[in-house]
Structures are given as structure tokens and as C-alpha cells.
Write a structure and sequence with these properties.
The complex is a heterodimer of chains A (about 70) and B (about 300). With about 70 residues, chain A is of the alpha+beta class. Chain A is about 25% helix and about 45% strand. Chain B has about 300 residues and is of the alpha+beta class. Chain B starts with a helix and ends in a 12-residue tail after the last helix. Classes of the chains: A alpha+beta (about 70), B alpha+beta (about 300).
Chain lengths: ~70, ~300
């Protein structure tokens, strides 16, 4: 079985983490059963004001970045 | 504005005022649900009342659910022979009017009107049966879990939380949980907060929060929680599984770092005071004003 993408490309994971959390500090990264997830609340911001928030989960597939992450509201 | 004033403002912004649209909607739905249940189970005269955060005084605007308990007398059989029958019969009667999503012990109520199909009312109905004539302890059916029934006591739960002296901290921890998408159950988080702060003699809200986060960061494995309504009988260890502990500990660490580096607004954000209606209007205006949609992908992969 091939190594998970985040072990093959640890710099990519760190880059995504850093870019995401600098803008969305409430989105947290977790690695569970060999899969990378982001969970947390995603704010809808307009002209500096938070209009609403959505609790989301983003799953990075095993073959990321070959496949796109899957986003769902939870 | 100092830290504690800021936290109080956050709490105010998370309070559903009695004349808010959200609370009025909840109260109307509650009255309708109660009417359905009273009509259907008129022979049994169940006790129907608020439970959960509404009764405990820990409701927050960002994530509010209304728990309505519907407990039947211990010797009543009209609502069902067994606890499972009671649960299923309440499910069936509510399903005649609502879309009902079964949970482990509760029934989630949603709209079945085609115009608003599946819209969540944020209401859970919790069917149960009192254990005896005193109408204090009750058994709840458990669809999942080792045991098929759970002994509980609503008044003990309410008293434990309400009289803990830490309801402000609990409300802020609930907000922290929601904002960070933490999977820990609210009940476990409430108990963790009280257990951590018990005996700490901290009256300052910001110090209470930091103290609990430090405990979650440093001693998560040492903190144990028990159900005040049935300390020996209800095993809550599943609520603090290793995965949940890790999640709590890592986000607590990140939170403490955020306070250190960027201050408290990095945790709870700016104070947001606008009503849901005003926010909806602003959201509609924002949608209209977006002329160039953002690409949902990175260019440089």
C-alpha cells in the first residue's frame, strides 16, 4: 500500500495548514485513520462583518492532490 | 474594554432574548408539539417540559437546541408496554405531523412541509418513563449502546449545571466547541468544565477559561466525569474516548497559543450583535454584490 499523501508531501500539508489557519483560525486539522480532515466553523464574511457560520468538514482523499477535497456541512 | 468585559459582551451577543424571532419560533413549535403529544397520549397524561440548555440556562444563539422531555407515569401502559414501544409510539405520533429523525434516545423534529422540507426546528423530544410514583428518576430508551435503557434525572442534571456557579464559562465553552467543530458531547463538556473548575476558587471568567484549557492541554487523561444522576450506573467513558481527548487537547493548546499571540478576539472573534433577520438581509445583499465568483481550487498544485 502506498504511503499517504501527507507523508509523501509533508510540506504541502504544512502549507495548506498555514494558509488555511491564517485566514480561518477555527478550522482545525486532524489525521484520523490515515486521512486528513479539516473541521470547524467557516465564517461568511462581507465587508468585515461575519454574516453567518457553517460547521464544515473537509476530507482530503488518499490521492490528494490528484483528487479534490470533499467538503460537507456537518 | 478589558477581557472580562469583552467576554460578557460575547455572552450577551449569544443570548436569545425573549422577543427574538428564534425563541418565538422555538416556543411556537414547542406548543404545537406538546399539543400533538397531549392529544395522542391523553390517557397517559405525560409530563412535558423543557430540558437541556433552556432549563439549565446555558443556551447559546450560535447553536441552540430545545430539549422537550415527554415522560410517562411508571405504571402507564397506554403509551407502550416497553420503553422501546414508548419511544416508537412517540416517534409514530410525531411523524404524522413532522419529519422525525430518530437519535439514540431522542427524536429530532424537522419540517415536513414541502416548502420547507427537512428544515431543522432545533428541537429534540426525549421520551421516557418515570421509575416510580415520585416522578423524579426516569428511564430513557437507548437505541444504541450496551444497555437498552438509561436511568436519568432531569432535575439533578439541571441543578448540577445551573447551581455550579460556572454557567457563563459553560456557555463560552459551548461556543468554543461549536466554533472549532469539536465532536465532544455538550453534556460531557459541561461536566468537564465543572469538574475542572470545582475547588479552583476562580471567579474571574477569563481565568476560568484559561484554567480549563490548561487542564485539557496538560491533564486531559486525568480528568474523569460521571453522570450526577446515576454516577455508578451510567458509564460516560465513551464520551471522552482517546480521539475526543486528543481533539480537545490539541484545540485547547491552539487556543491558549492564540490568546498569547493575538489576544481573545482570536478565540471568539469580534462581538457580533445583529439579529438573524438583519444578518439574512446583509447576506442577501452580499450575494447580489458578488459579481466574480471565487475559484474553488488552487492554481499551483
Amino acid at each position: 500500500m502506498s504511503r499517504p499523501w501527507y507523508k509523501l508531501k509533508p510540506i504541502l500539508l504544512e502549507q495548506i495548514k498555514s494558509e488555511t489557519q491564517s485566514k480561518y483560525p477555527n478550522l482545525n486539522f486532524y489525521i484520523e485513520n490515515g486521512l486528513v480532515f479539516i473541521r470547524g466553523s467557516f465564517p461568511i464574511v462581507h465587508e468585515g462583518a461575519v454574516l453567518d457560520r457553517y460547521l464544515i468538514e473537509v476530507l482530503f482523499p488518499n490521492d490528494y492532490p490528484g483528487s479534490l477535497p470533499i467538503v460537507q456541512e456537518v | 474594554m478589558d477581557t472580562n468585559e469583552y467576554l460578557q459582551k460575547i455572552l450577551e451577543s449569544q443570548t436569545l432574548s425573549t422577543d427574538s424571532g428564534e425563541l418565538k419560533d422555538l416556543q411556537k413549535h414547542r406548543a404545537d408539539i406538546e399539543e400533538v403529544l397531549r392529544k395522542k397520549f391523553s390517557e397517559s397524561s405525560p409530563t412535558i417540559r423543557y430540558g437541556g440548555s433552556k432549563a439549565k440556562g446555558t443556551m447559546i444563539r450560535e447553536s441552540y437546541d430545545l430539549d422537550i422531555i415527554c415522560y410517562f407515569p411508571h405504571d402507564d401502559k397506554a403509551a407502550g408496554e416497553t420503553l422501546k414501544d414508548v419511544y416508537n409510539n412517540v416517534y409514530k405520533s410525531l411523524s404524522e405531523r413532522y419529519l422525525v429523525e430518530p437519535k439514540s434516545s431522542a427524536l429530532r423534529i424537522k419540517d415536513r412541509d414541502p416548502k420547507n422540507y427537512n428544515v431543522d426546528f432545533h428541537i429534540d423530544v426525549v421520551p421516557g418513563r418515570y421509575t416510580d410514583d415520585s416522578r423524579k428518576d426516569a428511564y430513557l430508551y437507548q437505541a444504541s449502546g450496551e444497555k437498552e435503557r438509561l436511568k436519568t434525572n432531569l432535575d439533578i442534571h439541571i441543578k448540577h449545571i445551573k447551581e455550579s456557579g460556572f454557567t457563563d464559562a459553560i456557555r463560552l465553552f459551548k461556543l468554543w466547541k461549536v466554533r472549532n467543530g469539536l465532536r465532544v458531547k455538550t453534556f460531557a463538556l459541561e461536566l468537564l468544565t465543572i469538574e475542572s473548575l470545582k475547588g479552583s476558587r476562580l471567579s474571574n471568567l477569563s481565568l476560568q477559561l484559561e484554567y480549563v484549557w490548561e487542564r485539557l492541554r496538560d491533564d486531559i487523561k486525568e480528568i474523569s466525569i460521571e453522570d450526577p444522576a446515576n454516577p455508578q450506573g451510567n458509564d460516560l467513558s465513551d464520551l471522552l474516548s482517546p480521539a475526543i481527548q486528543l481533539e480537545l487537547s490539541s484545540v485547547a493548546t491552539k487556543t491558549l497559543e492564540a490568546i498569547q499571540n493575538s489576544g481573545w478576539e482570536a478565540v471568539f472573534g469580534p462581538v457580533e450583535g445583529e439579529s438573524k433577520d438583519k444578518k439574512s438581509d446583509a447576506l442577501r445583499r452580499a450575494v447580489v454584490s458578488v459579481t466574480t465568483p471565487t475559484k474553488p481550487w488552487f492554481d499551483d498544485l
